[in-house]
Amino acid sequence: MDASTPSEQDKLMAFAMRTITDISAGYIGVMVSLGARLGLYRALADAGPTSACELARLAGCAERYVREWLNAQAAAGYIGYHAASDTYEMAPEQVAVLADEDSPLYIPHAWKVPASMWFDEPKAIEAFRTGRGVAWGEHHEGMACGVAAFYRNGYKASLVPQWLPALDGVVAQLEAGIAVADVGCGHGHSTLLMAQAFPNSRFHGFDTHAASIVQARRNAEEAGLADRVQFSLANAVDYPDHRYGLICFFDVLHDLGDPVAAARRAADTLAPGGTVLLVEPFANDRIEDNLGTVGQLYYAGSALICCAHAISEGGKMVLGAQAGQARLETVFRKAGFTHVRRAAETPFNLVLEIRR
């Protein structure tokens, strides 16, 4: 054997270390959540190079716990450590991801999702064994909160400044005033972003999760938009017909038990010249082209969240979170749409413009 060729033992140890790396990521996720909730990241970002004792004072925490937390962060490469001065510091990119709650890359909220998945493990085991579904509202409450908070900043960065302008003529229609439906609106962040940007239009958010609708209404009140934004409990095939100039599906179509029926409802309620905006998790059409970090995240989430909810709704077509553009197009063409165009994309999203 060539000296440069890995032996079976080398490959075994390399793979074992890969799994240890993944377990370590789970550990650091708990530290990330603690750092955000306790204000440790924000205090460190504001202070610059800081000792453990001083950071504990600034954040109102116990120094011994803070020192160990800091060392875990430094070991993960999430913050920097200066041995000569025994101080810790955050680089600008670390601040953007871990401390700046308005950054589109802010990540701490996302850790609520795997925490909820662990909490729901007994339900997942039963679902795998029986084939039953698990509806969105059956998950631990952290699931809805984590998903809503994580997606909010990404939508804030992309929806109004990038995705809507990528649709032919839609911004002009919104400025003039049209009815807009946000199907599967969750906590209403996407709906409210559009409402803030286009005061002449009226917005209707629909969701089947009652707690999310309650929170969406609260968010609308706090934003001063309750007069132009209405949130209602309804599913993707029975929401009211207001002759919408724009119907939006933000990361929700693949969660539906009958996406073709949802597309048909969109066709039936769309005003002449109207547009469907479909935002879905980024995926290529072939499995082998999705085998990377983003695919790993999406396939795992799909198994326990997306497919589980679609099955709970009858599961006539369980797309999963890695459907790919070809399958998404098929859904809308079955519903009578003739125009499907990829208007934009990010490493995490496909953005499709769909018309009859």
TrEMBL record:
Keyword annotations of the record: Methyltransferase, Transferase
InterPro entries in the record: Methyltranfer_dom, SAM-binding_MTase, SAM-dependent_MTases_sf, WH-like_DNA-bd_sf, WH_DNA-bd_sf, WHD_Rv2258c
A GO molecular-function descriptor: methyltransferase activity
Name of the protein in question: Class I SAM-dependent methyltransferase
A Pfam cross-reference name: Methyltransf_31
Source organism: Ramlibacter pallidus
Keyword S-adenosyl-L-methionine: no
UniProt domain S-adenosylmethionine-dependent methyltransferase Rv2258c-like winged HTH: residue ranges: 28-98
SUPFAM superfamilies: S-adenosyl-L-methionine-dependent methyltransferases (SSF53335), Winged helix' DNA-binding domain (SSF46785)
Every Methyltransferase domain range: 175-335
Superkingdom of source: Bacteria
Gene Ontology BP terms: methylation
